[in-house]
Amino acid sequence: MSIEILDVFKQDAFNAVSLSNAVNDITPTYGRLGALGIFTQEGVTQRTVAVDFDPITNALVPQSQWGGPGTANKSALSKSKSFQIPHFAMNDLMLAADLQGRRRPGSDMVQDMQYVTAKKMRELRVKLEQQQEWMRLGVLRSGQVKDGAGNLILDIYSDFGISQIATGFALGTSTTDVMGKIAAVKRNIINALRGEMITGFLAICSDSFYDAFVSHANVKAAFTYFQNNNGQNLSQDYSGGSAPAGQVRGFTFGGNELPVTWINYTGTVPDSSGSAQALVDTDSAYMLPLGTSVFKEFYAPADYIETVNTDGLPFYAKQERMKYDKGIELECQSNPLPICLKPACVQQLTKT
Q1: Domain boundary assignment for the chain
Q2: Region 279-284: what's the mean pLDDT?
Q3: How many other C-beta atoms lie within 10 A of the C-beta of residue 31?
Q4: CATH assignment, 2-52+79-151+296-340
């Protein structure tokens, strides 16, 4: 029986390319930012990526004399920095004990190689996907991208001498002009984009910020008198539950032409030590533009011979026979680096 099992793993369906394709086709369990498609994925051939922050200057031009010289252009120096792309790999084993005399859960059929392989790859993929989402959230939260042990991978604001703007919404005060504060934040984001076109805004909210926001008197009044024509009211949940990939499900508030979609990103995730880490900082929200090209996610190739100098993929998977044919070793890896090319366009909102 063991010979037949190992012969199966020699088939094309179990080579590195096929396993990588299979693991990339698995629907992720975690990753709302990834599902919304905010970050544009781009494969690179190396383990470092150079990012240019180009300070294009906008200025009015004085008229020139006919036949005379034009006005000399004064260009600001761009800032360029290279970043090391991190490497995340996870391993598992396929042993004879995983198959021998084992029944597939929920079925009267015995375990087979394809089922166990798919199950283990899904477990590895889910953990790597959660790590990717944690890094994307780090781009929004103070620009600090960290691994599961809390090690700093990237600090956008520190590296380029930029500070993230934070706006207090004073949601505990019933007379706060919430719409005015939203308008001010939107203007700041638009100015930071320096003319780049956008399709709208998204606000990722913690539980406490979201609850205080939707219960504020001025927000309720706006829903009652201005937005009921859209079929929205606070008796329903627009917090941002499951939605088709690429779509934002939440409630819109803060303008008609370029509204803000507010979603409650709830939950915690354990780090490598088992401590719970909130996905969004307590009492905070983060507003960002939609439809831009400023959010990038670079992927380096896997450290396999067959992937050297090829464009990186989001995930890779591979298997190898163990010594003495004791079983099969499985590996799934991802090498991502999310970044925002214009970090000033992401702004923090606080409840107080």
Answers
A1: 2-52+79-151+296-340, 163-292
A2: 94
A3: 17
A4: 3.15.30.10
Weakest-pLDDT range from 102-111, 181-190, 201-210, 334-343? 102-111
Residue 186: helix, strand or coil by DSSP? helix
- In single-letter form, the type of residue at position 201 comes to F
Whose CA is closest to 39, among 144, 163, 160, 138? 138
Q: How far apart are CA 99 and CA 105, in angstroms?
A: 12
Dig out the tokens for 9 from the structure: 């793993």
CB 72 within 8 A of CB 303: no
Using CA atoms, how far residue 22 sits from 43, 81, 237, in Å, is 18, 35, 35
Tokens of 127: 């953990």
pLDDT average, residue stretch 83-109: 80
Name the amino acid, one letter, at 110.
Answer: V
Q: pLDDT by residue (tens digit) across 48-64?
A: 998 876 555 566 788 88
Q: Residue 338's pLDDT is what?
A: 96
Question: Which tokens hold the place of 154?
Answer: 């990237």
Burial group, residue 24, by CB count within 10 angstroms (0-12, 13-18, 19+): middle
Residue with tokens 């995340």: 88
SS (H, E, C) 116-171: HHHHHHHHHHHHHHHHHHHHHHHHHCCCEEECCCCCEEEEHHHHCCCCCCEEECCC
